[in-house]
Every structure is written in C-alpha cells, then in structure tokens.
Amino acid sequence: MLTQGLVTITGNGKTVLKAVCGCNGHSAELLARLIHERCLSTVNEVYNAALMAEFGCPACLVVFTKSEARYDGKEIPKLYWKTL
Fold first, then answer.
1. How confident is the model over 67-76, as a mean pLDDT?
2. What distance lies between CA 81 and its chain's CA centroid?
3. Kind and range of the H or E element at 80?
4. Which of 30, 52, 56, 71 has the smallest C-beta neighbourhood within 10 Å, fewest atoms?
C-alpha cells in the first residue's frame, strides 16, 4: 500500500531521530511500539526495526539524526536535514 509515514523519537521536548517512509506508512504504530518496547535509539536499530515492521522499504526508508543517517537509495535530500 502506498501510504507515507513518519515516526519521531523525542528527548527533552526536541526531535532527536526521524524515520520517514514513502510506502507502508500504516505500520507507523507498530514501529513506534517496537522502538518503545526495545528502547531503540540508534539509526541502525530503528532502520532495522522499521524494515521488520514493514514500515517502508529499502528504496524509500530514511532514518536520520542531526549527525547520522541511513538510506539505501540515493543521497538524502537537504530538506530532511533542515526539518529535524
């Protein structure tokens, strides 16, 4: 199903990590639950959990922080970095 999705991790009222996908966004709730239950906090942990939850696919899934990112597609658009 082609639904976009967004899951964020916050700390002290600020966004510290975002997971964005262009398909299967309906799995956002499952991903959020996995992150919470497993105390996931790194880009790679969240990226792998997102794929396991079928939140996006390697071609459209982007997981990033201010200093790190994982995206198996092309270069991450600059707009992503500006909106964190």
1. 83
2. 13
3. helix 78-82
4. 52
Query: Coil, helix or strand for 83?
Result: coil
| Distance between CA atoms of residues 57 and 21, nearest Å | 7
* Mean pLDDT to the nearest integer, 3-29: 95
Sequence spans of domains, the chain: 5-82
pLDDT reported for residue 75? 75
DSSP 14-61: EEEEEEEESS-GGGHHHHHHHHHHHT--SHHHHHHHHHHTT-S-TTT-
Rg value, the chain, Cα = 12
